[in-house]
Amino acid sequence: MTRGTTNPNRLRRVDRWLAGPAAPALRRAADPLVVDLGYGASPITAVELHRRLVPVRADVDVVGIEIDPGRVAVAKPLERPGLSFRVGGFELPLGGRRPVLVRAFNVLRQYAEPEVGPAWDLVRSRLAPGGLLVDGTCDEIGRRSTWVAVSAGQGPVSLTVSLRLGGLECPSDVAERLPKALIHRNVPGERVHAYLNALDSAWARNAALGSFGVRQRWLATVAAMKTEGWPVLDGPRRWRLGEITVRWDAVRPAGNA
């Protein structure tokens, strides 16, 4: 069982991504089933997820899954069409239904690194074809957030960093919020360490653009990363939100296929 701490609007950054780049998977799904896995002591994140995905797919069905029966009992009065809660874990007890999206935030952070791969594989085995597991971490109020997109067929495919740009000193401040698969790899010789260093360097080189606003500085920073050959997957529309997404190969742990 996770600590369960959460706050309203804490997961807005990843929800914005699920309703953006990940939305095509939901739109084309035969069964628009989405899981909020390990939602914590309060069901607010599942309630918010449902609200944010309804504009993408009006018939979306969000299921909050928690390992603690007491937490599920607290959430049950909030059930309504398209939103329900049940007891379970990574096995996703959904009666044979296969979700197209699974959001697991601040869950695997509390596990040991060797447990991450098996947890990913278990969830992947339950996903619908073309489905995604989004495994991420954020700070207490959602200003700094990172997540790995793990596809049903390919495994991990990308890492996203999403930051509140106001007050940002350097992008690598997000290091303490890296997903469990990467948080212990931010050391010399690892790809994620090189990536964060490159992001900091690009941020420093574009400091002069800060006079036009922090967003302009960030846009130039991400553009520089792309020019330098980092496999940036998104474009300026996402960058403006404080996001940058790169292919998993750019940051995967040394020794991992």
UniProtKB/TrEMBL annotation:
GO biological process: methylation
Name of the protein: Class I SAM-dependent methyltransferase
UniProt keyword list: Methyltransferase, Transferase
GO-annotated molecular function: methyltransferase activity
